[in-house]
Amino acid sequence: MNSVAVTAADDSRERLDRLEALAARLLDACRAQGASQAEVSCSEERGLSVNVRMGEVETVESTRDRGIGVTVYFGKRKGSASTADLRESSLEATVAQACAIAKFTEDDAAAGLADADLMARPGPDGWPDFDDWHPWALDAERAVDIALACEAAGRDADARIANSDGASTSTSTSLSVYANSHGFVGSERGSHHSIGCALIAGSGEDMQRDGWYSIALAEADLERPAAIGRKAAQRTLARLQPRPVATGEYPVLFPAEMARSLVGHLLGAVSGGALYRRASFLLDSAGTRIFPDWLSMHENPFLVRGLRSAAWDSEGVATRASALVEDGVLQRYVLGSYSARKLGLQTTANAGGVHNLEVRANAGGFDDLVRGMGRGLVVTELMGQGVNAVTGDYSRGAAGFLVENGGIVHPVDGITIAGNLRDMFAAIEAVGGDVDPRSHIRTGSILLGRMTVAGGD
């Protein structure tokens, strides 16, 4: 295992021990103030990021951030406070502030820690190993070289690459501890690395921008800088000389990097906060079919090197592998303990969000879906915020490509795609196996049988 450049050795275990000891002290302080329940989160992050543009260094930033959050409950009254100052006087003031806030709040029947019997516990062999700790021994000079090489590969790919929006390299490591008055203490460490590039092609009125990036928990899993630059160039060049399309109904293919936005709208609609506020187009939908009967989505919190792997959620509740959608039927909602109590349900261990949601494929990759769609549109960019979470109405500006006879014909932009998310979910005809690993929403390309397209013709 490599060590981060700012340390002589991997001291993460010692730093986690210090954070755990700090959390225990803060919990004791909360009890001493009379809190009936309390929870504490402590975190540290170290990172390095560089940005270059047109062969010149624009920024180099080294960060060391930390944070402490304290939440107390006096019966059903809640107070929270936070600080980044670890001096004893500041920590004491943070606890006192949280307690003072709680005394001024109203009782909330749903307030409180998650139930004690739901807390995660290590198995016989300890906590699962997600293989998510891979610090990158990267100094500023090497980070700049990587970004410059990425940008140069893109700029050199074709004479039509006229400009650059820049390239970047970043690496970070994080340590976090969550502890509560049930006796739960959980500590985590993780690493995160990225390389990206954005380019501009063309001239005059025909100028287009696009890019590409790679993210991973381990440096070895990143795409190579030159490959990222060349792919950024390829994507940018493909957008040159767009033409309009006729208004009408078309099959629409969302490539994997765009398809996760559709799944994101589902997650927003079935999240506890939206449901108890009655601000979702999927109210009372658990147990009903909202997708085709072949489509399933499973949450896998234990995925090795998964971007959201975790043995517990942000309240300490034990996570579990489970179906969100099975054979087209919504199996459950996405709940933390507070929203679950508001709805009269039990937490699904999703305080803080879902963990590695996997959309099951029923087709080949992107190219296979293009060949099979006949005439339609591929959407590579979405613009605007035209999604109504309450009604499900969907209308967004888009750019992409026209497909005819199973092949991409020319780029298009200035179009609007519209529908209703309920209808769009039901109209999914295929999910590709070309999973984009750059998100905790792990889906391949998604083909919708029809959407309304306003082509600006």
UniProtKB/TrEMBL annotation:
One of its GO terms (biological process) is proteolysis. Residues 247-455 form the Metalloprotease TldD/E C-terminal domain. SUPFAM superfamilies: Putative modulator of DNA gyrase, PmbA/TldD (SSF111283). It comes from the Bacteria. Residues 134-240 form the Metalloprotease TldD/E central domain. Residues 38-102 form the Metalloprotease TldD/E N-terminal domain. InterPro entries: Metalloprtase-TldD/E_C, Metalloprtase-TldD/E_cen_dom, Metalloprtase-TldD/E_N, PmbA, TldD/PmbA_N, TldD/PmbA_sf. Pfam families: PmbA_TldD_1st, PmbA_TldD_2nd, PmbA_TldD_3rd. Keywords: Hydrolase, Metalloprotease, Protease. One of its GO terms (molecular function) is metallopeptidase activity. The keyword Protease applies. GO terms for cellular component: cytosol. Coiled coil: none annotated. PANTHER family: METALLOPROTEASE PMBA (PTHR43421:SF1). Belongs to the peptidase U62 family. This is Metalloprotease PmbA. The gene is pmbA.
